[in-house]
């Protein structure tokens, strides 16, 4: 996993601990948020293992029932398919749980920690301006109506584009990847659309400003 992508995920988890109106915070407050994010990942790994175990048990029971309780071939086939689905879910969860300890270990690397803290602190500092930008880019919707995780993904992306110099395309792609992991299909599509409108509006406003300037820099 790329260092910056890992930092973005840590920042997102850290922001979930931040009050909606953060006010003025010190760097040690942001460090605490980052620690809370790592603790969240640890809990997530444990939960994934427990859920995978439950799914394997249920899948095994479906297989047993398909041979002993199915009244016909179709019912037996359906029970086997359900068992396969449960087993596949369990495998996916186990793969994720195995990946998390390495993620947690690497999260202490200075590069990852520094970028995660930069994302969290800038999001808290510029939240009012960022939220205004996002509200203006939405069509028949507003930021407060979104799930917290979607709001924070959008905020991180705008902070990267407007304050940290991340290319628009990169920031949008990374936001979509976060949404695929933490939101749903509608969520990541919505986030992609909103961020593209943010970029389009920014380019349009920049064009207006440039067209209104004279040679000596005064505005007409």
Question: What would your notes on this structure say?
Answer:
The protein is mostly helical. It has eight helices and no strands. The longest helix is centred in the first third of the chain and has 42 residues, at 27-68. The protein is elongated. The chain starts with a helix and ends in a 9-residue tail after the last helix.
Number of helices: 8
* Helix residue percentage: over 70%
Mean pLDDT: 76
Alpha-beta content class: mainly alpha
Number of strands: 0
Provide the low-confidence segments as ranges: 213-220
Distance between the termini: 50 Å
Sheet having the most strands: none
Report Rg: 23 Å
Search tags:
220 residues; mainly alpha; 8 helices; 0% strand
Task: Tell me briefly what this model is.
The protein is an all-alpha fold and 220 residues long.
Secondary structure: elements and pairs:
Elements: H1 3-15, H2 27-68, H3 73-106, H4 110-125, H5 127-137, H6 148-163, H7 168-182, H8 185-211
Helix pairs in contact: 1-2, 1-4, 1-6, 2-3, 2-4, 4-6, 5-6, 5-8, 6-7, 6-8, 7-8
């Amino acid at each position: 996993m790329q260092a910056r992508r890992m930092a973005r995920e840590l920042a997102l988890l850290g922001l979930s601990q931040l009050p909606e109106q953060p006010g003025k915070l010190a760097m040690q407050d942001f460090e605490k948020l980052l620690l809370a994010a790592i603790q969240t990942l640890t809990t997530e790994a444990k939960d994934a293992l427990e859920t995978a175990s439950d799914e394997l048990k249920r899948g095994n029971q479906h297989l047993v029932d398909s041979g002993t309780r199915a009244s016909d071939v179709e019912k037996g086939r359906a029970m086997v398919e359900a068992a396969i689905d449960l087993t596949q879910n369990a495998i996916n969860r186990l793969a994720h749980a195995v990946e998390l300890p390495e993620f947690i270990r690497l999260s202490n690397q200075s590069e990852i920690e520094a970028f995660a803290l930069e994302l969290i602190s800038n999001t808290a500092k510029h939240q009012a301006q960022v939220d205004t930008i996002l509200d203006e880019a939405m069509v028949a919707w507003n930021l407060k109506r979104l799930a917290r995780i979607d709001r924070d993904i959008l905020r991180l992306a705008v902070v990267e584009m407007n304050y940290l110099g991340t290319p628009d395309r990169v920031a949008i792609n990374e936001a979509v990847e976060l949404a695929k992991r933490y939101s749903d299909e509608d969520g990541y599509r919505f986030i992609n659309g909103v961020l593209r409108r943010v970029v389009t509006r920014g380019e349009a406003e920049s064009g207006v400003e440039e067209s209104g300037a004279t040679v000596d820099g005064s505005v007409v």
